[in-house]
Amino acid sequence: MQILLQLIASGVAVGMIYAAIAFGYQLTFATSKTLNFGQGEALMLGALVGLSLTSWLGYWAMLPLVLLFGFVQGAIVERLGVRPSIKIKSEFGWIMATIALGIIFKNLAEIVWGREALPFPSPLPTDAYVLGGVRILPVELLIVVGALGMMLAVEFFNRKSIWGKAVRATANDRDAAGLMGINTSQIITLSYAVSSMTAALAGVLVAPRITAIDANLGAVLGLKAFAVAIIGGLESGLGVIVGGIILGVAETMTGYYISTGYKDVPGLVLLLLVLMVKPSGLFGKATIKKV
């Protein structure tokens, strides 16, 4: 029983990282019905920029700058990769554009930071807390608290601020929002900026747990987060949290009871099952497309 609880605790920490990145997918899909397939690279860049800033400012002081970097990087992706496709009403142009920009960012990261894995110092003690016989690392608590705090902050922004209400109006009906005087192009840019900002924060949260990071950090994490977004539902905040935890716990249990070589399989199996049974996701709502 103790081993099971230990696996669940570790899986929750991993799952919250997936949820934080998947939350970014949800933000852009809500406003523009598009996705940033370079979201994993936003996480990678956030981690590497955070590493460079940590050596200069320290971990806690660099966090606002990493958030600002992620915000700007997301706005650039939207302006260069997504907006042109939306203007010409291309259904698939944004897919290739965001993938291409992700590859470019990865190559730039290799030029700046090299291809070797770099150690990321932990801002917290390495001694684990023991709760009911379960060992929990301080950095795992940081991941859970940081990811939840970030998602709650974005939700508060959407509900209480003028810009947030404009985001919600655009998400509900972009054409109607435009007729009401809302600049929907700016709102979509904002959603991409906030999306990449959440990914950058996820990068500096997960980096101390991974301990060594490189330009390939975001590839697998971004793909798994996309699976989480589909499993939970692209229009459900609760769905990405539940989906992330399910996948994280499934991976840790698979790695322990079967083999670490198969720990990536549960995500693919869950994704296929959800697509067969409930294509809109566990917490998603099926939509009827009018023609």
TrEMBL record:
It is found in: Cell membrane. The chain crosses the membrane at residues 43-71, 92-109, 129-154, 187-207, 265-284. One of its GO terms (biological process) is amino acid transport. The keyword Transport applies. GO terms for molecular function: transmembrane transporter activity. Its main location: membrane. One of its GO terms (cellular component) is plasma membrane. It is a multi-pass membrane protein. The keyword GTP-binding does not apply. Signal peptide: none annotated. InterPro entries: ABC_transp_permease, BCAA_transport_permease. PANTHER family: AMINO ACID ABC TRANSPORTER PERMEASE PROTEIN, BRANCHED-CHAIN AMINO ACID TRANSPORT SYSTEM PERMEASE PROTEIN LIVH. Belongs to the binding-protein-dependent transport system permease family. LivHM subfamily. This is Branched-chain amino acid ABC transporter permease.
